[in-house]
Amino acid sequence: MIQPEMALPKAELHLHIEGTMEPDLVFRLARRNDVPLRFASPEALAGAYRFTSLQSFLDIYYENMAVLRQAEDFTELADDYLRRAREQGVRHAEIFFDPQAHRSRGVSAQALMTGLGESLSKSLDRFGISTGLILCFLRDQGGEAAMECLREFLPYRDQLLGVGLDSAEVGHPPSDFRAVFEVARAEGLHLVAHAGEEGPPEYVWQALDLLGVERIDHGVRCLEDPDLVRRLRDEAVPLTLCPLSNLRLKVFDSWEQFPLRRMLAENLVVSINSDDPAYFGGYVGDNYAAASRHAGLDPAAARRVAAASFEASFIDPARRADCLAELAAFG
Ligand code: HPA
Ligand code: ZN
Fold first, then answer.
1. Taking the model in full, what pTM does it have?
2. In a mutational test of the pocket of ligand 1, which residue from 13, 14, 15, 16 has the highest number of ligand atoms less than 8 Å from its CB?
3. What is the Å distance from ligand 1's center to 329 Cα?
4. pLDDT digits (tens, 9 = 90+) for 84-107
5. How far apart are CA 302 and CA 270, in angstroms?
6. Which residues are designated catalytic?
7. Residue bearing the CA closest to ligand 1, atom 10
């Protein structure tokens, strides 16, 4: 029998496409593109996925990206994700990508957008998943590099749903990115940002007040600031939680500390997502299953979270209504 957490229709709102590259695919692409790897096998690579912090993960995440070179590599990456996502109940996915991380290898905006577009333009027909792309700026590269990146991608504006902010958080506050988010807003792009994962509640305030974001990615450290919790509740700001990620990156030392129950009791709008599933031990349905086993996500709460995932998405309204109707009829 398929577990109910898997079959439950859901949207995935916090997913880095580069974080879906499974060790087998790293090796396949390395062979195809003649890129040397320092590991002998996919199993040896997977054995290195023992993280102590966000940075310890980012180091190997960026290292593995060396194998992504051509448009068709990105098509294959996205196709592999969509196939797995369908098995995990995903009906709609808003997918992050990190263009600045591919620039050093000479991967052009055109190759990236052609490669990803080839897969995503067919996602609804092939997998029953509507999709959108969110371009993420690498916060450790600063505001000017982010602006340069946005300008390079504006010719592909129609293929973008929004912009986001990711990579090493501490020491790189949202305030550094006011100008680039202002341009993105003027372009009519949706705005999101990682904040309050390792960084302090102050970064969540800044993302809301200085960048004007519509959703906060992670945001778990908001609980340290009661005024911030009130603000998030009063304005129903969605938070995209990633339980397996937070456990693997030691944002929390144990499941007892993962604050899902508390956030639901505070009436915050939360969704459950996989972040970088090839690295953190599971896709989005696995995150629902882990939260139900370890963090108090009962079946009614799972439905509430799945409904919130569609409500918090930037999906076409008719598609949202269809997805919510399917959820209401589920089980
Ligand atoms: N946080 C910040 N940057 C990231 C993450 C994350 O969880 N995953 C991929 N890039
Ligand atoms: Zn993330």
1. 0.98
2. 16
3. 34
4. 999 999 999 999 999 999 998 999
5. 11
6. 197
7. 167
